[in-house]
Amino acid sequence: MRASELQDLGSFYREAAFGPRRVPSVAVFAFSLAALASTGCAVFKGQGDVSGPSASAARKSESVAAPVDDDLGSEEAGIDGITQRLKQFNRALGSKDFERAGRLLRRAELAIQNADELTRGHPEFDDKVDSAERAKVRFEQALERERIERRNAASAELIDAGDIALKRGRTIFAAMRTRFPTEDDIEALGQVLERLNQLRGNGKQYADHAQYRVHAEDRDAQTNALRDRLKVAQWQVATSEYLNAPIVRGGKARKAARSAKKKDKEIAALKTATDAFKQCVDHFKQLSSRPDYDGERLVKTAFGAKDLKSTRKECESNYQAISSKLAVVQWETLVTTVLSNVNSATRKFNAEKTARGKLEARPD
Question: Could you report the per-residue pLDDT of 183-234, keeping only the tens digit for each?
């Protein structure tokens, strides 16, 4: 039975309260029973249902399925019939079989209402009327206690589930403080946040519980911190990819320059490497201009998992070293070219001079 259905069933008896020697009409009881049956009230099926992560906690106090009507006894009239139903009601209520208890209580009240004059004149009749009224109050109180117990059980289960999810989130959070976040970290933290959001929605109905309210405030604060950390982790991954592209390109070009056999090939590779690391330096200028830039955050590139400040220094030092190397190689190539041209002109001049000397020489 849902907590709300338990409350509704109790309300029926408050609305149908009767004075001495007065009981609700048969029509009132028949209408109430039909209404409860039409709503699928779980208590008339021997089942429990509470809102929360699961119904396991609520089933701790679940009643045994009610037997069929054949053991409610015959419609025996008189004091004995009323007494029998009230005793059976007490046993059913004691075992939390609310469906059976409710049916037995209605049978007893109907027996009182339909009592003949002989029964009404019995010395114990007034006591049975009082007993039925007290039974009605106890039944209403038992329904209310059951509703509260089930509600508290569901609230406690939500608290336990929230604590488990938060512990998992804190473990992931702590791991990412000392290393670069992995895709598994991001996926796992996203699942934790999804679970916490689900629990938050399920727990809105328990906002009036003091214990749950304290838990919810702490849970929501930690959830916000985990959500912020997830955003940072996602930023770290995206920024690493953004920076790594020119770093990888520059590294490959530098390697090609070292293995080049010809100066023109070396110069072309050095130009590519210089442009790549210059792009990396420009990326850092753009990133550092943002208000949320934090140089202590880890990124993972071809330089390894390092903070942004260290990675920036790597880009800048590579750019300076390779651009200097390029200038040197270009100057050496220029000097070599000039010397080659000078040597060529000298050889040509000497050859022409030798030829003229031979022509001017007189024959013997």
Answer: 999 999 999 999 999 999 999 999 888 999 999 999 999 999 999 999 999 9
Output b/e per residue, 111-139; b: 16+ Cβ within 10 A. Answer: bbbebeeebeeeeebeebbebbbebbeeb
Question: CA-CA distance, 280 to 274, in Å (whole number)?
Answer: 10
255, 302 in Cβ contact below 8 A? no
Distance CA 218, CA 177 (A): 21
CB 172 within 8 A of CB 185: yes
125-139 pLDDT, tens digit per residue, is 999 999 999 999 999
Spatial contact of 232 and 224, defined as CB atoms under 8 Å apart:
no
Q: Mean pLDDT for each 10-residue chunk of the chain (364 residues)?
A: 50 42 38 38 37 39 38 61 94 94 94 91 93 95 92 94 97 92 95 96 91 95 96 94 96 94 91 95 94 92 95 96 91 72 66 66 58
- C-alpha to C-alpha distance for 18 and 52, rounded to whole angstroms: 38
Per the rule left: phi > 0, alpha: psi between -120 and 50, beta: everything else, 46 is left
Distance of CA 193 to the CA centre of its chain: 3
Residue 102, both tokens: 């409710």
83: tokens are: 């007494």
What are the structure tokens assigned to 277, written together? Answer: 């690391």
Q: Which residues contact 206 (CB under 8 A, 6 or more apart)?
A: 151, 154, 155, 158, 212, 213
- As a dihedral over the C-alpha atoms of residue 26, residue 31, residue 34, residue 35, rounded to 10 degrees, the angle is -150
How far, in Å, CA of 338 to CA of 332, rounded?
10
Residue 333 burial class via C-beta count within 10 angstroms: exposed 0-12, middle 13-18, buried 19 and up: middle
Question: Which has the closest alpha carbon to 272: 240, 248, 301?
Answer: 248
Residue tagged 């339909």 (tokens): 114
